[in-house]
Amino acid sequence: MPAATLHVVATPIGNLGDLSPRAQQVLREVAAVCAEDTRRSGQLLAHFGIGTPLLALHEHNEQQLAERLVARLLGGEALALVSDAGTPLVSDPGYRLVRAARAAGVKVSPVPGPSALVAALSVAGLPSDRFTFEGFLPAKASARRERLAALAGEPRTLVFYESSHRIEESLADLRAAFGDDRPAVLARELTKLFETVLDGTLADLHARVAADADQRKGEFVLVVQGVGEDADAKLVEGRRVHAILARQLPPSTAAKLAAEITGAPRKALYGAGAGADD
Questions:
Q1: Under 8 Å CB-to-CB from 134, ≥6 apart: which residues?
Q2: pLDDT digits (tens, 9 = 90+) for 25-43
Q3: How far is residue 53 from each of residues 34, 65, 163, measured CA to CA in Å?
Q4: 237-272 residues labelled b (16+ CB within 10 A) or e (exposed)
Q5: Residue 43: exposed, middle, or buried by beta-carbon count in 10 A (0-12, 13-18, 19+)?
Q6: CA 39, chain centre distance (Å)
Q7: Contact between residue 152 and residue 173 where contact means Cβ atoms under 8 Å apart
Q8: pTM for this one?
Q9: Residues in CB range of 277: below 8 A, 6 or more apart
Q10: 141 near 275, Cβ under 8 Å?
């Protein structure tokens, strides 16, 4: 294995059988593995009989450790970077280290493999030639609704990550911003024992999640179809304007003004995005 290389290694998102032979070899041969959670990554390495030392590298210490790790790389060592699961840097720490290594002239080499984002897209049956990855939506309701209002007119397929304790309210906010009839797919616990992939409209998915506590457990990837060429542009713009006005005005007043500004049907806007902040 070439020295002075930072290997960015994708690890399983659930099924340990997805760790490739090449990834196993790299993790065995590097001087150290930089891991977001050393306990979780330690279990993975132990499963494959890999005894390489682990270094904790997470969002709270990455900036301060990057210089020290780059010095090791410049000294001729090879290091690996892994996240808790999946491909590093996709909603996970690591970009500061990668940026510092590249700025220092160190080779950065990917070891491709599992990614929840790509896995969900591959089974969604929604357009995937063009898509946008939005990661996790804001935890605060007002910020989440503002973000969704800005995305309501996005023509590309949208991909979100979401947690178990926010999936139901996020689906409710998506319905308000995008409309009940927008096609979507909810992928839960991909490659794990209780994997489920639900499809339908946003209203369908919200109802199924609300009715079944099991569908509110685990890790989620939500894939939402973008606005089609035949979409009502006035309605999309009306929802965006309404979401902005509703932050300062009563829902009925916001709907009336948004309808006057955009030409969208007032009845379709009334109540959209209404609800108390958390």
A1: 147, 151, 158, 159, 160
A2: 999 999 999 999 999 999 9
A3: 9, 16, 31
A4: bbbbbbbebbeeeebeebbbbbbeebebeeebbbeb
A5: exposed
A6: 23
A7: no
A8: 0.81
A9: 140, 141, 142
A10: yes
Burial of 30 per CB tally in 10 Å (0-12, 13-18, 19+): buried
User: Which of 226, 200, 208 is CA-nearest to residue 168?
Assistant: 208
pLDDT in tens, 203-238: 999 999 999 999 999 999 999 999 875 446 677 778
Q: Which residues of the chain have pLDDT under 50?
A: 230-231, 273-278
Among candidates 144, 127, 134, which has minimal Cα distance to 226? Answer: 127
Residues 194 and 214 sit within 8 Å (Cβ to Cβ): yes
Cβ–Cβ < 8 Å for 185, 222: yes
Residues 33, 36, 40, 43, Cα dihedral to 10°? 0
d(CA 136, CA 162): 6
